[in-house]
Design goal:
Length: 267
C-alpha cells in the first residue's frame, strides 16, 4: 500500500541539534507535498511553538495539519479550524500543583501564546519556552489563576528524580495519561490522549488508514505513534525503546533522517 501521510515529531526529528530545518529536509518535505501527500507535525509543543515551523514547511498552503500538546489539539492549517480538542479536568489542576510542591518539581501550563509557572522557574522551564519562542510568567496562586481550559500541564525536573515522580503520578492519577516526552519533561495529559489516539481521529477525518501513514520520531512521547503507524520510523538519535519499537531506523536528525525516509518510501 502506498504511503499517503507523513507524520513528523519536531524536536530531535524534523529539526537538527540547532533547532533548525535543514535545506535538504525542507526540500524533501515540499516535494512530497507537491505530489499530494499530507504532512502532519505531531509535537508535545504548544500550538504557538509549532506554528512557525508549520509555516516554514507551508502546511497552510498544502493543507497539512498540526497535532500540538501531544495530540490534545488538532488544527487544519489551511482553514485554522480546530478539528479536535481535549482538555484536562479542571478539578485536577489544584491536585497537580500540590503534587508538584510535595515532590519538589516544577509545574507549568499554557495560556494563549505564553507559558505560566506555578513554581519557581527552573532551567527546564526556560528551555521549554525558549524552544517554543514564547514568554514564561510565574503566577502567585497557580490553582486560582488557572480557571481557563488547558490541554496539558508539564512537570519539570532532573531526569533521575522525574523518573521517580512519574511513577508516583501514574499511581495517583490513573484517570490521566502521564508520560515523559524528554527525561526532564513529564507530560500530564487528559485520559487516552497521546499522538497515536489523535492520529486515529485525524485519519478518520481524512478517510485514510494507518497503513497509509509513516510516523517519524525520537522521544518517549513518539512511541505510541511509531507503534501505531503502518511504518514507524525511529531516528538514529532516538531513545532506545523507540528504536526497539520501530519498523525502520533512519539517519539522525543531524543527517537529514527525515529527508532520507521521504526519498526511500514516498518519492
Amino acid at each position: 500500500m502506498a504511503y499517503e501521510i507523513l507524520v513528523l515529531d519536531i524536536d530531535g526529528t524534523l529539526t537538527n541539534s540547532k533547532k533548525e530545518i535543514s535545506p535538504s529536509t525542507l526540500d524533501a518535505i515540499l516535494q512530497v507535498q507537491e505530489r499530494g501527500h499530507k504532512v502532519v507535525l505531531a509535537s508535545g509543543r504548544p500550538t504557538p511553538g509549532v506554528l512557525p515551523l508549520a509555516r516554514k514547511i507551508k502546511l497552510q498552503e498544502y493543507g497539512g495539519f498540526i497535532l500540538s500538546f501531544n495530540g490534545g489539539r488538532i488544527i487544519n492549517c489551511k482553514t485554522n479550524e480546530i478539528i479536535y480538542q481535549k482538555v484536562l479536568p479542571k478539578h485536577v489542576i489544584p491536585e497537580l500543583y500540590e503534587e508538584a510542591l510535595a515532590n519538589s518539581v516544577g509545574i507549568l501550563t499554557y495560556e494563549g501564546d505564553a507559558a505560566i509557572s506555578g513554581t519557581e522557574i527552573d532551567e527546564f522551564m526556560v528551555f521549554e519556552t525558549k524552544i517554543n519562542g514564547i514568554p514564561l510568567n510565574k503566577v502567585d496562586n497557580f490553582p486560582e489563576y488557572v480557571t481557563f481550559e488547558v490541554n496539558k500541564c508539564l512537570m519539570t525536573g532532573p531526569a533521575d528524580h522525574l523518573k521517580v515522580v512519574e511513577e508516583i503520578m501514574k499511581n495517583k492519577f490513573t484517570e490521566l495519561n502521564i508520560y515523559r516526552s524528554e527525561p526532564y519533561f513529564l507530560e500530564i495529559m487528559p485520559q487516552h490522549i497521546d499522538k497515536a489516539y489523535s492520529l486515529s481521529i485525524l485519519l478518520e477525518y481524512l478517510g485514510l488508514s494507518k497503513e497509509q501513514m509513516i510516523s517519524c520520531g525520537d522521544g518517549f512521547n513518539d512511541l505510541s505513534m511509531i507503534q501505531y503507524a503502518g511504518m514507524g520510523v525511529a531516528m538514529a538519535n532516538a531513545q532506545k525503546v523507540v528504536k526497539e519499537a520501530a519498523d525502520y531506523i533512519t539517519l539522525s536528525n543531524d543527517e537529514d533522517g527525515v529527508a532520507h525516509v521521504i526519498k526511500e518510501f514516498m518519492l
